[in-house]
């Protein structure tokens, strides 16, 4: 069983943030309850994410979300320097985001390359030139701020983190447009679809309607499914059901909660509907899945 790192070992409850620049060697597989943003400053190595190995090098940026597992493998004689930026999802409050007119859902966190397991490291973000310099400047500034702890450092760090995440999203969008030669309008639709997906990932247990999504993302209800189908080849609710069933699988495998309670926890008030959906996605009933997971 992988080690799960607790936030109390790295940050204070009243200021759930930490950042450090360090030489990273090989490290066994582990998870953590906080978000970890990693920037590779120098060198190269391997990053094992959810059991799959990826080569990483200077300029690479990636995020490990709470509950995910990862490890590092650095060959003997090689050196890899990284900046580790750790924070709880609650670190940037909805109130601050509203002030900055970003969003109350923090959906920019989940813009590629921080979105889906199967693509975000295959199509990772590697920064060069001015883009790399801008990100490194922000990270080094946060390191200085948390080291000096002068008046106002907490506010400065929060604003710099928001700026960093927005920049990373912008850089990925530019990289994607260079590769696909998408028009600005096409690119905007791609980014909107990914933001919606990220929101669904975090809000799967809430009541979600096309009308509520339309208001949140300023897209007409008619366009919502079209945008999602263009990017993910699925409707909004197909994506939502897929996310919910994956969460339910995890709960069934890791807890003794009754099936009816699991259904409610992932957003379904009707257990029969949940069971039918589960069979469609998993090929077996929730009870059969649990028996197989515990076999």
From TrEMBL:
InterPro entries linked to this entry: AraC-bd, Homeodomain-like_sf, HTH-like, HTH_AraC, HTH_AraC-typ_CS, RmlC-like_jellyroll, Tscrpt_reg_AraC-type_HTH
A Pfam entry, by short name: AraC_binding
Keywords: DNA-binding, Transcription, Transcription regulation
Domain HTH araC/xylS-type positions: 194-292
Database matches in SMART domains: HTH_ARAC
PROSITE patterns noted in UniProt: HTH_ARAC_FAMILY_1, HTH_ARAC_FAMILY_2
Protein name per Swiss-Prot or TrEMBL: AraC-like DNA-binding protein
């Amino acid at each position: 069983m992988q080690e799960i790192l607790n936030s109390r070992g790295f940050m204070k409850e009243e200021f759930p943030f930490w950042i450090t620049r360090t030489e990273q060697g090989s490290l066994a597989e582990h998870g953590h309850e906080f978000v970890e943003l990693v920037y590779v400053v120098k060198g190269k190595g391997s990053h094992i994410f959810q059991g799959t190995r990826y080569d990483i090098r200077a300029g690479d940026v990636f995020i490990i979300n709470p509950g995910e597992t990862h490890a590092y493998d650095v060959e003997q004689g090689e050196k890899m320097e990284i900046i580790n930026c750790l924070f709880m999802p609650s670190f940037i409050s909805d109130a601050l985001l509203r002030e900055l007119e970003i969003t109350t859902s923090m959906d920019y966190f989940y813009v590629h390359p921080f979105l889906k397991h199967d693509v975000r490291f295959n199509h990772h973000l590697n920064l060069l030139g001015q883009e790399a310099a801008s990100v490194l400047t922000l990270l080094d500034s946060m390191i200085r701020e948390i080291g000096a702890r002068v008046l106002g450092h907490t506010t400065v760090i929060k604003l710099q983190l928001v700026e960093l995440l927005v920049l990373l999203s912008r850089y990925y969008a530019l990289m994607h447009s260079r590769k696909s030669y998408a028009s600005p309008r096409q690119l905007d639709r791609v980014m909107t679809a990914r933001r919606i997906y990220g929101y669904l990932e975090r809000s799967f247990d809430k009541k979600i309607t096309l009308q509520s999504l339309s208001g949140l993302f300023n897209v007409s209800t008619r366009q919502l499914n079209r945008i999602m189908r263009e990017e993910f080849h699925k409707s909004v609710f197909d994506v939502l059901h897929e996310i919910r069933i994956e969460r339910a699988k995890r709960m069934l495998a890791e807890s003794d909660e009754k099936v009816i309670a699991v259904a409610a926890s992932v957003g379904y008030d009707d257990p029969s509907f949940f069971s039918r959906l589960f069979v469609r996605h998993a090929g077996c009933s929730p009870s059969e899945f649990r028996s197989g997971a515990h076999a």
